[in-house]
Design goal:
Length: 505
């Protein structure tokens, strides 16, 4: 079962990280005097390079460990199984990556790709809820009784057989057949299937790569259609902040990477609702707003790097940096923050959750923190990729912002959890002693306290982090622009030159 799950990471990985850097970009070899199919076939040898292949080999050595006690023949089958399984998984991942790239190059295909990525993110964030709902079915009512399944903890035979039937389990199936002294067909057919499957996937990858090479540079353009974006009436168009806000609203729906992230921020919480609602934990539906705020921060964590060298306009315009920060935050609130707060209120009403005030207060804290932390991480931990002037497709490199994404995840989660814990442990007991009310009055006071403290912490985090962001951006903007131009983030850590007095001495 572990090998099957591990093998599926080769399928899931390219879907979750579509803009990761390629081993070799086919566009580098477009001008070679060779047929595109020959170039793609020559590039196939380099696709095995990477950390993923090394980790996979280490994981697949378990086949040899299982086979070794059963003799030399079983060990030989295990060794062949490692090679065949690696061959199949490698080309499975590369072929999926090529298909995702093809989908993201078209206006129609980008939405199925975004749906797949959002579905995987929803399972990653909330896939554990249905399981825990069976283990702790009455947690919403305050009961912590653990329900132990009556069935055996071991994987049922039917599930094990189904996993061995999948291509990710064929190597292990061959080892089991050789260890049990099975016939030649039971050993050869799984290995033969892995080799044939890997060969077919390799041929498909070559065809898809050759297709990309055949597309002339003149046609390598954006499939996005520029159209008018409705601007809320609350935005006054005659101020610098409103101008930045309008620009950001248009950029979020035009830039291919931002548009893809915005789709994740909208679709993933909706899919999480469908995972949580049918379970006994429907009381947890309002807490999806907290995860939506965290996800909204993660998709907006690299906006300055995505804009790239456009930063020079802010540097050369007096007062533009401060207005830019406020405009970006206001646009984020309009597109992500406002809808997620409204959605949380709706979930509180529909679910009748006894923890609605806690969830809504935490959502307010998370929204305020995420609104300021996302652009701050974009400046402190930038990940420059292809410049915005040259990036016309979401398959083109936008930098690897995984470090900043998990950092902002930790920041928002820590501030949100800390505010909720402080309210529950310190503030509520003090208020209870002052008011001394019970029953309905006590419930109203507790609810108002959670909402007010959540909003207060969110506002404080927004003000403080925004001040830090503006100060850091004003100091580091020229260095940041240099890093965007050179694609070298080490320039941000370059030592400061000594002053002239010390140099003369």
């Amino acid at each position: 079962m572990a090998l099957t799950v591990f093998g599926m990471t080769w399928f899931v990985g390219p879907i979750l990280v579509p803009a990761a850097s390629l081993i070799l970009d086919p566009q580098w070899f477009r001008t070679l005097p060779r047929r595109p199919r020959r170039i793609a076939a020559a590039m196939a040898a380099s696709e095995a390079m990477g950390v993923g292949s090394v980790i996979t080999v280490a994981a697949l050595t378990s086949l040899l460990v299982v086979a070794a006690p059963h003799g030399a023949i079983a060990a030989s089958v295990g060794l062949v199984g490692i090679i065949a399984q690696l061959f199949f998984l490698l080309w499975l991942g590369r072929c999926v990556r090529a298909i995702i790239d093809l989908l993201l190059r078209s206006r129609i295909g980008e939405w199925p790709a975004a749906f797949q990525m959002s579905a995987l993110l929803a399972v990653a964030f909330a896939g554990w809820v249905p399981i825990m709902a069976h283990v702790l079915p009455e947690l919403g009512a305050g009961e912590t009784t653990i329900v132990v399944p009556s069935m055996n903890i071991a994987v049922p035979q039917t599930i094990e057989s189904a996993l061995l039937f999948l291509p990710t389990g064929w190597g292990l199936a061959a080892v089991f057949a050789a260890s049990a002294g099975g016939g030649v067909p039971g050993v050869v057919l799984p290995l033969f299937g892995l080799v044939i499957g890997g060969t077919l996937l390799r041929a498909a990858w070559i065809s898809l790569t050759a297709r990309a090479l055949r597309e002339p540079p003149a046609r390598d353009q954006s499939h996005l259609r520029v159209r008018g974006v409705p601007v809320p009436r609350v935005i006054r168009r005659h101020t610098a902040v409103s101008a930045v806000t309008v620009r950001e609203l248009k950029t979020w729906v035009r830039d291919p990477h931002r548009k893809l992230g915005l789709g994740h921020a909208w679709m993933t919480p909706l899919m999480m609702i469908f995972l949580v609602a049918p379970t006994n934990w429907s009381w947890a539906l309002p807490f999806i707003g907290v995860m939506a705020a965290v996800l909204g921060a993660m998709v907006a964590v690299n906006t300055y790097s995505l804009d790239g060298t456009a930063l020079w306009q802010l540097i050369t315009t007096p007062g533009a940096l401060s207005a830019d920060v406020r405009g970006r935050q206001l646009a984020w609130l309009i597109l992500i923050g406002g809808p997620l707060i409204a959605g949380t209120v709706v979930l509180c009403i529909i679910s009748h959750s006894p923890f609605w005030a806690v969830a809504l207060g935490m959502t307010l804290t998370a929204t305020g923190t995420a609104c300021a932390a996302a652009p701050l991480m974009s400046v402190v931990m930038p990940s420059p990729g292809r410049d915005a002037r040259e990036r016309v497709s979401s398959v083109q490199s936008a930098g690897n912002s995984a470090g900043a994404e998990w950092t902002v995840f930790a920041v928002v989660a820590t501030v949100t959890a800390g505010a909720a814990a402080l309210t529950q442990v310190l503030i509520l007991p003090g208020i209870a002693g002052v008011f001394g009310v019970h029953g309905t009055g006590d419930t109203v006071v507790v609810a108002l306290t959670h909402l007010l403290i959540g909003a207060l912490f969110g506002l404080v985090a927004l003000v403080l982090l925004s001040a830090v962001l503006r100060g850091h951006l004003e100091r580091a903007a020229p260095t940041l622009l240099s890093a965007f131009v050179s694609k070298d983030i080490t320039r941000l850590r370059a030592p400061k030159p000594a002053n002239r007095g010390k140099q003369r001495r």
